[in-house]
């Protein structure tokens, strides 16, 4: 692509944008959009994890148990919304949304293990290791992680190889040692220690925020936008602030909501003697900080018009949710 072209020219030249004359992407009421995307993602996940016969059938059963039938699919929703904004192919976006949900599900399975957070409850149901045993839970998590990459690298994505490779690279960077797993290490090493606010912010920018940032940016990658494109940069910045807002709100909920409402064990950080935003800022201070990050996320979308209003509403939902 020639240097010196304008952002609008680069966008027009991107090979995966909606064709001229296609109906513009329009914002929808958030609840309606979440329900629709959740259903579509669940269907895609179920299709990709078809039950099998044979001795390995229990593995697929455990993977389906971990990946289906629960959760808001917020990361997958971010993928679909970004892809819709930029005209990326819907079926490719659905596979990418399923992929990030596989990655997220694997992280939850491993996070609940006795060697990690030792939690027997997830989404109101027994954790995967309580249902299938620790060994099978570890294997199911491993398989979900590899499936996340298999899905987006498969030619069935119906996108050029370089786009699929860029998506896989971004997911690997967000989920590995420089992202989610690295954040988990800092979290474990920080137990019983009084971490500072910058340390806690970095911890969660990696452990929680990196995958949310990837999900927000994935639609732009699917649409073929280069890294320096203003719209891709806007979605990336939006995702980064959304990840922080989400985690702060999660800390507030962990301190104020019941296990029944959360669908997972409440008060885990306090019980494990972990530093978090509530411990550092108090409940009101943490809630205020979450709103600040949510507002920053919305401002990052200035390059978009009203077609991004669903994402702006989502930023409010991230800090107002009750579970």
TrEMBL record:
GO cellular component: a single term: cytoplasm
Keywords from UniProt, A to Z, are:
Isoprene biosynthesis, Magnesium, Metal-binding, Transferase
Annotated region (Disordered) at 1-25
Q: Name one GO molecular function term.
A: prenyltransferase activity
Can you tell which superkingdom this protein's organism belongs to?
Bacteria
Q: Where is the composition biased (Low complexity)?
A: 12-24
> Which cofactors does this gene product need?
Mg(2+)
Q: Which Gene Ontology BP annotations are present?
A: terpenoid biosynthetic process
Write out the similarity annotation. Belongs to the FPP/GGPP synthase family.
Q: Which PANTHER family match?
A: FARNESYL DIPHOSPHATE SYNTHASE
**Listed name of the protein:** Polyprenyl synthetase family protein
Native source organism of the sequence: Formicincola oecophyllae
